[in-house]
Amino acid sequence: MSLAVLDTPQAAGAAAAAVVQECVQAKTDAVLGFATGSSPLPLYDALTGSGVDFSRIRGFALDEYVGLGPGDSRSYAAVIESEVVQRLGLQPGAVRLPDVAAADLDAAARDYEQAIRDAGGVDLQILGIGHNGHLAFNEPGAALDSRTRVEELAERTRRANARFFDSPDQVPMLCITQGLGTILEAGHLLLIAHGADKADIIARALQGPVDTDCPASALQLHPRVTVVLDRAAAAGLAGHGFGTPGTQGTPGTGPTS
User: Fold this and answer.
1) Residue 132 is among the residues annotated as catalytic for this protein
2) 138 part of the active site
3) What percent of the chain has pLDDT over 90?
4) Contact, 99 vs 111, CB < 8 A?
5) How confident is the model at residue 169 (pLDDT cuts 50, 70, 90)?
6) pLDDT at 49
7) Candidate list 64, 139, 151, 230, residue with the active-site label
8) Per annotation, catalytic residue among 64, 113, 134, 230
9) Catalytic (active site) residue 139
């Protein structure tokens, strides 16, 4: 596991973007895994206008809400379209999402899992982290070998996501999410996080025990993980073998564990 700690979210985004650029330049038809939410936005900002050719890239989203109508601006399909496909110049339809409008959601989840396998797997998976340690929508209690499935959102996750809706009651109860086992099969995991509110869960995920109470602790099981943080998000890692807050570095060259 390699770690880079930068001064600001924007600097962290640029460092994470360099990892994505390296992947795409090495494999122009790479399969990328895309995350939504606030964590990866500085990364997508840095990639916009970078000059990297994403026209042959294929991708998979980590998850999608169940229950939002087609074209709903709060859906992850809409976010992926605006923040990834249009900004980075991917081909229309290049990023696949789970079919949350399917009559059989369990079958749709299995189909999504198979689609990832059929694509040869994900080369580089971009990840954020939730305040309760969720990866994608794998909430506490999710099995470390879980696969793509229908999941009920934890109340804390729904409260955190309520800022995107007119009221907390509008936040969907269900989603389809890649499982932790699915995520761990990607060739390279790239976690980006920023903000003091993520410091405790980052420390727990990277330095605590690997257990289902903190789904992101599954990162410790993967052979190739790059973690890019701003100074605030790294505060809980000081003095524990990951360097001190404010350490400058680039992914792959900074402190390792």
Assistant:
1) yes
2) no
3) 81
4) yes
5) confident
6) 87
7) 139
8) 134
9) yes
